[in-house]
Each structure stands twice: as C-alpha cells, then as structure tokens.
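Re: alpha-D-galactopyranose structure - here you go.
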Amino acid sequence: MPTDARPAAAWPTDALSFGGDYSPEQWPRETVLEDLRLMREVGVNLVTLGVFSWIKHEPLDGRFDFGWIDEMLDLLHANGIRVDLATPTAAVPMWLHRLHPEILPQDEFGHPLAPGGRNGFCPSSPVYRAFSLRIVEALAEHVADHPALAMWHVGNELGGGNARCHCPVSNEHFRRWVQHRYGTVDALNEAWGMSFWGNSYSSFEEVTTPSSKTAHNPGQLLDYERFSSEALLDQYLAEKAVLRRHTPAVPVTTNFMVGLGPDVVDYARWAPHVDIVANDHYTYGPDPLRHQELAFSGDRMRGISGGGPWMLMEHAAGAASWHAINQAKKPGELIRHALAHLARGSDSVMYFQWRASKSGTEQFHSAMLPHAGRDSRIFRDITTLGGHLGRLAEVTGSTVAGAQVALLHDNEAGWALKSGLKPTNNPVYADTARAIHSALFEKAVTVDVLPAWHDLAGYKLVVVPGLFLVSAENAQAVADFARAGGTVVVTWFSGIVDERNTVITGGYPGAFRDLLGAWSEEFYPLTPDETVELDNGWSGMRSSELVHAPDAEVIARYSSGDVAGYPAVTRRAFDGGGSAWYLSTDLHPAGLAEFLDRVLDESGVTPAARVSPGVEAVRRTSAAGSYLFLLNHTATEGWAEASGTDLLTGHRCEARVPLPAGGVAVIRED
Ligand code: GLA
C-alpha cells in the first residue's frame, strides 16, 4: 500500500475517544493495576503509550526487549482500552548520544543542545534516521498483530525543541534544498534579492543556514522555515513508511501543536500525510479570553482536517508547568474546555497525562489523576466528564458543517512576517485574526479558519486578516469570490509580499489593491499605547496608513494622528452584489463589533443560535441529528434559544435553554 493511502478503519475507538498519555514505566505494578481500575471506572477507552520509551525497548545498542510493552498491551486490552502506540523516537537514548554526539541539533551559534530532554536530534541527520528507523521497524514488527494496537503516534510534537538546526549536516541539506528549489544561482540571487548589500552568491556552495545576526534576509529566512518543516516531515514520512509496511490497516498520526500560528512546522501542508489530524492544545491561564483562543485553534484544526472530525490528542486537566505562573483551571473549566474542543469538531478528549508524575521535568504538570489521587476536584470532574462523553456517543462522527464565514490563515504568511525587519518589529501574526475571530465568537458566529488556498465556495463572508504573504492565485480566488457576490474583509498588512517574501510594489496591499479599489502609500505604525480616532466614533490601534480610495466608498476617515483626513475604512461594491472592505487599522473592540454587525448584515451571515453575552454556541450535525453545544463562559446565568433535549441531563428545553453560570448543555435539536 502506498504510504499515503489511508486505511479503511481510521478512528481508533467506537465512540468518542477519552484518555491520555500513559507512562506506566514510571510506576510499580500495583500502581499500574490501580490505574487500569480507575481508567475503567471513568470510561477511558484510549491511551497513548510509549512516547518516551526508546530506552525501555532498546536498553542497549541493538538489544531489543519488548517484554514490557507486550505486558502493557495485554493488560490494556484485557481492560478494554485501545492503544495509540507511539514510536519512541522523541526520546533519544543516552547510549545513542554517547555513541553519536553529532546527531544533536545545533543552534545558530553552532552550539549543540545538551543530551537529555527530548527531540534531541538533528532532523537531517542520516545517523539519527538510521537508528530511529531501526527501532520503529523492530517495534512495529513485534506488535503488528496485537489486538490493542489502534493507532500509531509518530514521535512527539515533531519540531518541539529541534525545529531549526544549524549543524554542518543541516547546512549541507539546506544547500541541496535551495539548489533543488531554484535550480540556478542567478534564480536564487533574484529570489532572495541578494544584490542588496552586495550579498550575491556565485555558487550554491556559499549558501548557509541564516544564522547571522546582521543579514535578516527575508527570503532566506522564510525558505529556512520551509526547509526546516520539510526536513521534519521527511522524518515523519520515513517512520510512517515503516509502520505502513508492517501494519497497513492501522492509522498513523503525529501530534500537532496548532495554536494561533505561525507554528513550528507547517501543519496545513503536513495534514495530507496523517490519517487523523491530531492536536495538543494548552490554554494560557492569565489570558482572560483563553476559551476564545481555544476556539480559534479548534476552528483552525477543522480547516486543517478538511472539515472532518479531528483528534484532541493532549490538553491539560489543570495547570501546565512551563509558564511563569501556572494557574489551575477555574471551577467548571475542565469540563467546558473539553466540550469546547468537541464543539469545534474533535471526536476525542485526551490529556497529558493520565497520572501526575512524581519526578522528572513535568512533576508539577496536572493530570487526569493528580498527586492527591481520586479524592480531588480534578478526578471528580474527570469522572463527570467521562459520564458526559458516554451520553454524547451519538455525536461521534458528526461535523461542524455550514459555517458561513471563512477566515484565511497561512503559516507561511506568519513565517514571512517574522522573517526580516518590518515597520513594527516582533509582530504577532494572528493578532488581527484573533481579534476578529473573538468578535465573531461573541456574536455566536461560526468561523472556519482555513488554509489560504482553500475553496471559498459556499461561504458568505471571507476575512483576510493580516495575511502578509499571499500567492497571486490565492489573491485571485478572494477577488473572484467578491466579484461573484460574496463579501470580503481585507485588513492592513495583508497581501504585502509574494511567496519569495518580496514586496508587491505599486501601493499596498499589492495583492488586493485592485480588488479593494483602495491603496496605501506609507505605513504609520502606532506605539503600543497609541490610539487613532476615526471620524465615525471608532478608534484604531497598532497601525495606520496613508490610504487613497480612488474606486471605493470611504466608510470612515482618520480624524487624529499623522494621517488625519485620509481614509481608514473603505468599501468597494460590485455589480453582482459582492463587496470588498478594507480595514487599514485594528479597530478597538466596540468599533470592531459595530463594523462586523454591518458586514454580517450585508452578507446575510447568521449566528449558530441567539445567545446571551458570553455564551459559546456551535452546532455539529450528522444524518442522525443536529447537536447544539452551549457553553456559558461567564459567572452569571445565561441562556440560548433552542428546542430539544439536553443530552447531558436528559431535560427537555422549549425555545429557551437556561445556562447556569459556567454551565454547559448539548442540545439534540428537534
Ligand atoms: C506537550 C508534550 C507532552 C507534555 C505536555 C505538557 O504537549 O507532548 O509530552 O510535555 O506538553 O507539558
């Protein structure tokens, strides 16, 4: 079977998957037996096993011992728990570091990382590749026929810690990659604009990874990000090919880290290579809008998985341990966060990890079973959640269909934005995207966060927020959408550069200038506490521009700051009923909400349900039914308009669903 052909039985469990990373190697046997009892008690049906177990499988070079994994697979199987088995390649054994110190990744100064930790390998290293494939081969061959094996989990968070390597092997690999991409040195010099500062190459031999503190060449930096992503993908594909050979019917995935972006590797471009798109998501306690950030990530996951169910592979039952202050989840948040991932299309609720570790780096990271044991708020919530998931079984396989709004996102745009110097440095790629998503979240409008090349047919509104890099083809698709009757919102710093990270000249935003009927000649970035007023009462932050609107209606002008009197918000109407709006600044929330009301109104976009402020509403549907997820993220009583049966309680609701403070409901609609 070709490695990209998907096996038929793709999902690892019959119903929603529930469980987490499980590291029995850290515990004595009696604890493991207790784990299995408690897992059964709360309804765990899937665990991720063996993520860091290379040293257990191969304690010495070439000496394999699979006794431990055999016993664990048997025990889990006997307890009705399916296994998402990891290839252990994230945990390079110390003996391998001793034998081959050259496999360690190097930073931009040529310093190797210290052995230990995880992902301590150069993605381009042929030595690491050979050793890693040897253990994958031995493991896959050994467990191929075990009935507990339900899914493969390649490595762990590929690129976490080792994504940008500058060792000699990576330099050589990068040179070959660049040569393959550009063919001739002249083409390379042209693409990267090497005549600037007289940096032109005369041979590919002169190309290096971009480690200089002074060059900041945007084209080179962007290509290095692409190269690094592809080097890691090669490792994934090499492991996957071995797994496919031994277990052609077992789905293969790896855990992504999809957040706001840009991500460490290009997940939307990796997605076709995984059988199930899986994500690790961790909220940041001090973020008051963490539930909205979670929703953004879920909406992105759906875009990356092509709309179908995706897998929440890891999240936290309580606090993480890598933030400055690691806040516990607020009362009710464990359940709300789990259901929020389901609402946005996940068919699983998985955690890092089942039992909290006593020692090691993450000894204070929360778990489904905390240090305190079962007599704890977390475990009681986990028990309640397990019950909820059982009652939600019929939701399995349904999808969040029919979103009317598409918001375009591209990792390459984020990478391009941080590659090289900009009007405002250290920009955050998804700030504008998140602000607009957040405002739509407040209006209970479902948004598909889509890769920039996604088909736009069927949407009513397309938002292009700070999409710094865009290809001519993708820009054309947006323009065609507006000319065919759709509504488009383009914001500042979209369509500024092409795929080489080269500015599209003739007035910003070059890629969308014709569509918008408006263009800007100069950026006027704002300091963090600076605000510009608009003449209709709105105000802007972060950036302003000197805009001309020869072919667009001016909706609002700047009334303060250096560009007072010039257009700030414009709208171009098309004969077919479509329109293209330009937002040349980030509106403060009140103005943004009004702006979006107008845009939603004219495009005919409707919310998933009418709700009280702060209630999240998302609908999943299937041939079997329509399920409205309602999550009250506020500390006061709320409501939503819906009729049906709450699957969590069995209660009927006619027209209006009351939602206690922090409460949740999943309504099977009439
Ligand atoms: C990541 C990793 C896990 C664990 C968690 C919690 O998602 O994949 O192994 O380290 O973070 O920190």
